[in-house]
Amino acid sequence: MFKVRLSVLGMLMTSAILFLSCNPEEEQVPVVVEDVVKKAIFDSMKEWYYWEGELPQTLDVTKFASNQAVLDELMFKPLDRWSYLTTKAEFDAAFTGQASGAHGFSFAFDKDEKLFVAFVFDEGPAGKDGWKRGWQIVEINNKPISDYKTSTGSYSFNLGANQVGVTNTFKFKLPDGTETTRTIQKGAFQTNSVLYKNVYEVGAKKVGHWVYQSFKATAGLSPTRSQEVEDLFNYFIAEGINELIIDLRYNGGGSVAVTEQILNYIAPALVNGRVMYTNKHNGNKFSNNRTVNFSKKGNLNLDRVIFITSRGSASASELLVNCLEPYMDLVLIGDNTYGKPVGSFPLSSFNRNLSSNNVELVPITFAIANSEGRAEYFDGFPVNFAVGDDPAKNWDDKEEKRLKAALEFIESGAVNARMRDTSFKPKWEMIDAFEGLMKEFPMY
User: What is the overall mean pLDDT for the chain?
Assistant: First the structure.
């Protein structure tokens, strides 16, 4: 889920050997670096893993073919879907939005199983090529979308290695009915987390509308925070909004520090100094448990927040909802969230063998509870109004079903039953296509 404001693929070091003795008269005992790293993974998990009590007391790491195999063996499968390995550089880049080897867009299916561009990053190759949400994808690399369907009814899109320069060809049907074919390369670029913002007048109310893709910090800012978030709330404050719609439907999570930043802007002034959340580590790390209080920023005075959510809303997205729930009226529209009430942070800085071998271990290390002690939502947060995704329409289209439902609720206090009849469960979502680090920040 949430990463504790820090910044992983284990890079195997084959063939290299460490010699534990520096005395030439003593027998030199070779230790394969692979096994040193595997043992470091086990030792670090025994020290930090949230479900440490479920781990074996000992583990013969030589029986495992890879670092990933060790981690797979240790993960508490009934609840842990998130622990992973990467490198420090990849972790830090992801949490500050620095993408490499990607086209910079996302897919989504509508209720008729037509595939659309769901969102596009401004500076990515797709954004530079003019792609928009609402473009229907009819072919990828000269194959119809149906060819990518699996025997289970899901989909598997293989768009090549995550390397700069890899090309793919896409055929689109545009909203005006015309078709276009585009071939683009994967590139390196800075992603934007704020996909869209606007202010609408609904009766006497001024409604802020914010589409947020991930809780990413701005590189170089201290303390850790997002300049995009600051600019966004300055815009809403200047516009004098008194209602807020936050669209998290494609937001898989990110930085806890940025989540705190957002919470401090949204929360009403009367909660200043009160508990935002409390985190809990395993018994070995009880001294690391801490409580974070609200520190109000800006002068927004909101009574409630309307969230647009889906099964792709996870981690920090759910933390945002959980921390506000005791203090504000919340309305969730769309689909139930993913269900990730636990968090992690990278452990290489605590283990020399991980660090020196460029392996970043990011296991689940803590749970987060709101001020009322709620910390168990592995099934996600249920919506108040189930409304289907509508990727055929761009963010600025007020007829887009979930946005329309949110505006309708603000105006009338209800959502039309016909709107709720649009609800459906997609057979495939972006969060299904990725594992590890990229499950939190899915894109192609």
Answer: 92
